[in-house]
Amino acid sequence: MARSIWSGFLSLGLVSIPVRLYSATQEHEVDFHQFERGTADRIRYKRVNERTGDEVEYDDVVKGHDVGGGEYVIVERDELDEVAPGRSRSLDIEQFVELAEIDPIHFQKSYYLGPSDDDTASSYALLRTALEKTGRAAVATFVMRGKEYLACVRASGPVLVLETMFFADEIRDPVKELGDLPKAASRGKQLTMAVDLVEAMTEPWKPQRYHDTYTERVEELVEAKRDGKEVVAESPPAATGATDLLTALQDSVAAAKKTRGKTAAKKKTAKKTAKKTAAKKKSAA
């Protein structure tokens, strides 16, 4: 059984449903330690008092907010918890929205939201079914680990999924960040071919077909260096010039259609084989 990272009440009007929050994802990582170059000496970090040079125990560390002029306001952990009493135990639903209305740029991290006791599991299931039937999501707020989160709660199969979200003022303005962005042509052969390429490469979403190739390369690098071998680096792709764009698009469309045709042929063959196998089993029975 997974260990929950937060527990509290999902509050909807006068209804309170005890729930627990669980991590829904895990990232691929190759662990590395830090060493001084040319030695086998590990590099370690310590909490050190910059004035005395003495190491400081974790329990003796407090937070300080810079108010300017070299002055800090010191805040204890307990004081942060007391700012919003009860908020760290309540997931308050503010409204319901069409899930499709939320721009994915707002999504931060996914969690599973599960019922915490059998007595109220039916209330949990009722909300999940209602969200699934309406195609809507609940927008809620809650406090976890000293931080307030905006959250989206949605149905996903048998479970409720909670997505922590960025607040509107946390999302940067693309124009301010990137400056004036180029405008695409509204018509012409290039746009037609670009649309054709999108259509030719459109397939049902199958997350299982993708895997972390970079982590695999890192693991290969570590293994090769352990065996004293060299790893040849891949060359980055060259940028397509404006004069070559139409040709590149046409070739890409042709390649995509060819690949799609092969995939369709394989599926057709697999279906025929499955039908033959089923027929043989039926006749044998």
Automatic annotation (TrEMBL):
Residues 256-285 are annotated as: Disordered. GO terms for molecular function: double-stranded DNA binding. GO terms for biological process: DNA recombination; double-strand break repair via nonhomologous end joining. Signal peptide: none annotated. The keyword Membrane does not apply. The keyword DNA-binding applies. It comes from the Bacteria. Residues 257-285 have a biased composition (Basic residues). CDD domains: KU_like. Pfam families: Ku (PF02735). InterPro entries: DNA_bd_Ku70/Ku80, Prok_Ku, SPOC-like_C_dom_sf. Residues 53-183 form the Ku domain. Keywords: DNA damage, DNA recombination, DNA repair, DNA-binding. Belongs to the prokaryotic Ku family. Homodimer. Interacts with LigD. With LigD forms a non-homologous end joining (NHEJ) DNA repair enzyme, which repairs dsDNA breaks with reduced fidelity. Binds linear dsDNA with 5'- and 3'- overhangs but not closed circular dsDNA nor ssDNA. Recruits and stimulates the ligase activity of LigD. This is Non-homologous end joining protein Ku. It comes from Jiangella alkaliphila. The lineage of its organism: Bacteria, Bacillati, Actinomycetota, Actinomycetes, Jiangellales. The gene is ku.
